[in-house]
Every structure is written in structure tokens, then in C-alpha cells.
Write a structure and sequence with these properties.
This protein is of the alpha/beta class. Helix content is 23%, strand content 26%. The protein has a single domain (2-136), classed as Rossmann fold (3-Layer(aba) Sandwich), CATH 3.40.50.300. It has helices at residues 9-19, 39-49, 85-91, 93-96; strands at residues 2-5, 28-33, 64-67, 74-78, 101-105, 119-125, 130-136. It binds adenosine-5'-triphosphate (ATP) and magnesium ion.
């Protein structure tokens, strides 16, 4: 696990700019953290770094948005309003994971069904300080040593 302090929005932008070039289709990033901890802000910066021109906004009312204008397809999910695991199957996300880069806010309900997670990110904001913990899978650990 790697802990990174995010003292300013620029630190989050820098983290996205570090990660985006090493992402490849099939990678799944889960973004955990309380309301307002910075998950969507980070997702926006990943989108920008991948060349997505459309502004990435919060998909919470539709659960899922996809962007095909960047270097790879980008799938952005926010499962805050997901009611059941069955609803996840209806979204069809398991069929598309391999073809793009998937970012999942509020992934808790999906964790049991997800075949794998390339990076688990946990965002923290205690009212003053912000930081993120990154849990890479065993294949990607060396990038964070
Ligand atoms: N270092 C930082 N990193 C990320 N966001 C920051 C930082 N400093 C301030 N912010 C601000 O904090 C807010 C984080 O909101 P954001 O929508 O990303 O949270 P969220 O985790 O997606 O919340 P939700 O669970 O409601 O979806 C943004 O308005 C952003 O501008
Ligand atoms: Mg959000």
C-alpha cells in the first residue's frame, strides 16, 4: 500500500498524470472514500490525462457513463445509488471491462462480483487534510515501491 498526501488539487492532478500513462485496457480502479473526498475530481483528471475531451461529471444518477474520445475507452461508474448486485448485471459492466479503463466510485456492492481490481484507491478527507491510499494488485506493486 502506498499513502500519498494530496495537499492541493494539483497533487491529485499530478497523481492522475502519473497513473494515466501506465493504464491499459482491462484495468479496473476502484475509488472508495466518503462524500466529497475527491473521487470524481480524480476521475476527471484521469479522463483529461487520457485525452477525453468531454468534461467528466458525476454519473451518480445514471450509475454509468462511457467516453470513447480518448486514448482508450473510459468507463466511469458511481454505484452510490445501486440497489442490488442484479442491477450491476443489467448495466452490462462485466462484458466491457476488458475493452477499456474502468473507474468505479462507491464500488462496495460490486466488489464481490468484480473479477479483479488493478488498483484500489481509498480517498480520505478529515476536514483539513486529504490523502489517498493506493492498493495495487500484485502485478503492479513494483510501480509504487
Ligand atoms: N486535493 C484535492 N483533491 C481532490 N479534490 C479536492 C482537493 N482539494 C479540494 N478538492 C475539492 O473537493 C471536492 C471533491 O469532490 P468530489 O466530487 O471529487 O468528491 P467525491 O468523492 O466524488 O464525492 P461523492 O461521493 O459525492 O461522489 C471538489 O470540489 C474538489 O474541487
Ligand atoms: Mg463522486
Amino acid at each position: 500500500m502506498k499513502k500519498i498526501e494530496l495537499r492541493s488539487e494539483q497533487d491529485t492532478i499530478d497523481l492522475a498524470n502519473f497513473l494515466a500513462p501506465i493504464l491499459k485496457p482491462g484495468d479496473v480502479l476502484t475509488l472508495k472514500g466518503d462524500l466529497g473526498s475527491g473521487k470524481t475530481f480524480f476521475a476527471k483528471q484521469i479522463g483529461k490525462a487520457l485525452g477525453v475531451e468531454a468534461e467528466i461529471d458525476s454519473p451518480s444518477f445514471v450509475l454509468f457513463k462511457e467516453y470513447h474520445c480518448g486514448r482508450f475507452p473510459l468507463y466511469h461508474l458511481d454505484l452510490y445509488r445501486l440497489k442490488s448486485e442484479e442491477e450491476l448485471f443489467d448495466l452490462g459492466i462485466f462484458d466491457m471491462l476488458e475493452s477499456g479503463i474502468t473507474l468505479i466510485e462507491w464500488p462496495e456492492l460490486a466488489l464481490r462480483l468484480l473479477p479483479y481490481q488493478t488498483y484500489g484507491l481509498v480517498f480520505h478527507f478529515d476536514g483539513q487534510d486529504r490523502w489517498v491510499e493506493i492498493f495495487p494488485d500484485s502485478e503492479h506493486q513494483r510501480l509504487f515501491e
